[in-house]
Each structure stands twice: as structure tokens, then as C-alpha cells.
Write a structure and sequence with these properties.
241 residues; mainly alpha; Heme Oxygenase, Chain A
Amino acid sequence: MTRDELEAALRKIGAERYHNLHPFHKLLHGGELNKAQVQAWALNRFCYQAAVPRKDAALMGRTTDRELRREWIHRIDDHDGNGVDEEGGIERWLGLTTGLGLDRDMVISTEKALPATRFAVEAYVEFVQKGTIVEAVASSLTELFAPQIHEERISGMLENYDFIDESVMKYFRRRLTQAPRDANFALEYVLENANTPALQQGALNALTFKCNVLWTQLDALYFAYYDPGLIPPGAFRPVDG
């Protein structure tokens, strides 16, 4: 494929598979969930947020490309914070869960997250640890589609839930600028370095895999907390929150 054809194929995956299309996402942003269901979403999503710096560190530890490491390292600061002037995305997400009434230590432990959430998240970390560097970078390209979902989340949740206010939306507002910056670099890297049919197919497969990771998390939430509402043993229940 040409660069333009590869980019079009990558964007087509997002248009068809990104989790903004999932029924649970539409329920969340449409104000159709109760507070306990929103708590369950925020708690489970924390597992993913907390794993992002680990997968980024795994990528950096495998590449010999110094320029790639120089660019990628700020992603860890974005999520972990730097202890000086950046609190980090994980801390901002904890602001969301605390604002929803969840115990901070319980959230950090991830012990009450759904088993499917934890399996999906760890599968993503392992994928980055074992795939090619092009595949590892390409798996991050869901960020191409993130600003739209963040905008929907901010407006929908503020409008539809009286237990959500501006103070707990800090994570999403920050990602409106961070995600496009990260996605633009990652896209250029993939377009430049996926220069054989095998590498191009690997990049497409990686982005499909990542979309499946995000979709699976919402599948689990829908099944456990919405329909049929079968919460597995040990997972978060409203009385636990």
C-alpha cells in the first residue's frame, strides 16, 4: 500500500471498530445509567489507565531507536505525572473515581475490577512486550479517534448526570490536547516504518487488536452491570462502593 492507502485502512478500522460505537458507551453518554453503573465503568477503566505507563515503558525498553524513546517518554509523564508540575492522568482519573464516591485505595488495588477487564488489559501489555515495534506503536493509534469520544463524554456526562461536575472531568479535557499530539507522531512513525506488506498488515492487525481490547472491556461492563446484570464473584457491587 501507499502511505495514503495505509492511513485510510487504519482510519477505516477506527470508523468500524472504535468503542464509541458500543451500546454501553451510548448508554453512558446518553444518561441512561445509574450512579452505581457509572462507578463500575470508572473503576474498571482505571485498570486500563494504570496499565498505560507499563505498556509504554515496555515499548521503550525494547527499541534501539533513540528518537522514538525521546518522543515516547513524555507519555509516561502524561499518565504517571512528574512530581513537580504534572499530576498525571492516573491521578486525574482517581479524581473522577473519588468524585463518584469510590474509595481511592479500593480503586488503586483493582481487586474489584471485572476479570474480563483485567485479562484484556494485561493482554494489551503483553502484546506490546512481544510484538514488533511497528505493531506496538500502531496499537496506540486508537488515539486518533479519542478526541471525539472525550468530547462526547464531557458534554454527555455533564448534561445527563447530576452527580458529575466539571471538577471530575479534568482527565478528559487534558486528553483533548494530549491524544492528538501523541496520535500524530505514532501515525507518522507507522506510515514511515511499515514499509513492507508484512509490516503493514501487522500494523492493521495491531490496531484491530487494540480496538478489541477496548470493546471487550465494555462487553464485560454491559453483561455484568446492565444486561443481564450478572456480576462475577469478587467484583465491585454497589454496596461495596
